[in-house]
Amino acid sequence: EAMTECLVCPIGKSSTVVGATSIDVCLPCAAGTYAAQPGQSECTKCRAGTWNDQNGSTLESACIHCAEGRYSDTLGASGPGTCESCHAGRYSVTTGGGSLASCLLCAPGRWTDALVQTDCQDC
């Protein structure tokens, strides 16, 4: 019996091939990406402030948040090396900061001269 529709790539994989004749064209998502739905033509990049070092990820939750005191503006990061330290004079108490703006400035009367801080000290 003839097929009336094409099969889809499973979650965690994608393919851009037109007219594919085999599931072999469905390739695992690369590190830094995931495919949560079947039939994707490209994998979704992990958002800024997160990273994923595994191939074939099926969920956005596979993207790990940068730690407190760090941020990353990189989309599709494949490792924690993209998580940069908040600069001196700044701090962050949240994980998954997607830009330097997520590192808050120390308030007047408070300071820090170190990197990767979660608080500022009183003068």
Question: Could you characterize what this model shows?
Answer:
With 123 residues, the protein is mainly beta. The protein is 0% helix and 20% strand. The strands form six sheets. It has a two-stranded antiparallel ribbon with strand order 1-2. A two-stranded antiparallel ribbon has the order 3-4. A two-stranded antiparallel ribbon has the order 5-6. The mean pLDDT is 95.
Biggest sheet, in brief? Answer: 2 strands, antiparallel
Helix content: under 10%
Question: Helix and strand succession?
Answer: EEEEEEEEEEEE
Q: Report the principal-axis shape.
A: rod-shaped
What's the short version?
This protein is 0% helix and 20% strand. The protein is an all-beta fold and 123 residues long.
Attribute tags:
two-stranded antiparallel sheet; mainly beta; 12 strands; 123 residues
Layout of helices and strands:
Blueprint: E1 13-14, E2 27-28, E3 33-34, E4 44-45, E5 50-51, E6 64-65, E7 70-71, E8 84-85, E9 90-91, E10 104-105, E11 110-111, E12 121-122
Antiparallel strand pairs: 1-2, 3-4, 5-6, 7-8, 9-10, 11-12
